[in-house]
Design a protein that fits this description.
By secondary structure, the chain is α/β, with parallel strands linked by helices. It has twelve helices and 15 strands. The protein has a single domain, classed as 3-Layer(aba) Sandwich (Rossmann fold). The strands form five sheets. Strands 3-2-1-4-5-7-12 form a seven-stranded parallel beta sheet, with helices on both faces. Strands 6-15 form a two-stranded antiparallel sheet.
């Protein structure tokens, strides 16, 4: 097994967070060219904290005094302290409250992270309110800002594994109400972009991973525990969350009206069977399986993002090795599964 240096993100949570929030020189140079403050709506989720801290670090390196503001409804005390120690201003607001939304400061650049996936089944009305109604309220409120809005590769249909994945020209075909509400989010943002000329970028993410959460962690833990790996969704795209953060901050230079739509995904059509077998080699145990690979999967073609930003900085084999080291060390997790195997859209 490859043993990484003492400052590798596999060593401690602090090192992991540092890796996820360290800006590349390209990010620094990009934010140096973008005027105005930056605000992240929904900063308390899995992506938000390190994305906000990367923005702050990049602006500091660029010599810019612009504010970085995170907005969350009910952030925990640890997150409050960590963001404030990192120079990120934190505001508490329920974005579905019109008065609270109106009371947010005017800023030039918005990252829209708010949304709901897990728990949709049985509470569909809440998912539609957050994923589809709220974007319209945000677009009305920040019609003079640039907006980078997160969506998901789930807006695509399952595509043949041999296709190379759905690209941005592939007609949407969302399966289930979560995915349908996310397409609704895109369409609502698109409407207001046309109406007001709002410059936007819509990010179809598929799938961000880090060492505490994601497709690779789920496969690794199953192999380590001797549990069979589900092959129903036999292929996937995975991309390091740090690379997602970097691309997100560089997208403000590419916002357009109507919106730029961009797949942000791992470049490989990665075999779940191969990933599991690689973890088996690293753990010294055999990988076992249940089910069989279908001929279709939820796959995104990242060629356009790779053209804009280059290939992700952390390759797949390194991600697998980092994840294996994290599991062997008993590293903490977020305690949530991605349900990437889901083929019927029930979340």
């Amino acid at each position: 097994m490859l043993i990484h240096p003492a400052d590798a993100p596999t060593r401690t949570v602090a090192a992991l967070r540092d890796a996820l929030s360290t800006p590349s020189q390209e990010v620094v140079e990009s934010l140096a060219r973008v005027d105005g403050d930056l605000m992240l709506l929904g900063v308390a989720g899995k992506l938000g904290p390190e994305l906000a801290l990367m923005a702050r670090r990049a602006l500091d390196r660029a010599g810019r005094q612009a504010r970085v503001i995170g907005v969350a409804r009910n952030p925990g005390p640890e997150l409050v302290e960590r963001l404030r120690d990192g120079g990120v201003e934190l505001l508490r607001a329920d974005l579905l409250d019109d008065a609270a939304l109106a009371g947010l400061p005017d800023v030039a650049n918005i990252v829209y992270l708010a949304g709901r996936k897990f728990g949709t089944d049985g509470a569909e009305h809440q998912t539609w309110a957050l994923n589809t109604y709220l974007p319209g309220r945000v677009a009305e409120r920040f019609r003079d800002s640039r907006i980078v809005a997160f969506s998901t590769g789930n807006v695509y249909p399952l595509v043949p594994v041999v296709s190379g994945g759905a690209d941005e020209a592939t007609p949407p075909g969302p399966v289930g109400e979560y995915a349908q509400s996310c397409l609704g989010r895109e369409r609502v943002f698109e409407h207001f972009s046309h109406r007001y000329g709002i410059r936007m970028a819509i990010v179809r993410l598929n799938y961000a991973v880090e060492l505490r959460y994601g497709v690779l962690l789920e496969i690794a833990r199953a192999v380590y525990r001797g549990e069979p790996v589900d092959l129903r969704m036999g292929n996937a795209n995975v991309i390091w969350q740090g690379d997602v953060n970097a691309a997100t901050l560089r997208l403000f230079e590419h916002c357009a009206a109507p919106p730029l739509v961009l797949n942000l995904a791992g470049p490989e059509t990665a075999s779940v069977r191969w990933i599991a077998q690689r973890f088996g080699e690293l753990f010294g145990v055999p990988a076992t399986f249940t089910g069989a690979e279908e001929t279709t999967a939820l796959l995104s073609n990242a060629a356009r993002a790779n053209e804009l930003f280059g290939y992700p900085g952390v390759p797949l084999r390194t991600l697998i090795e980092w994840t294996a080291e994290w599991v062997l060390a008993g590293g903490e997790t977020h305690g949530k599964d991605t349900h990437f195997q889901e083929r019927e859209g029930r979340f």
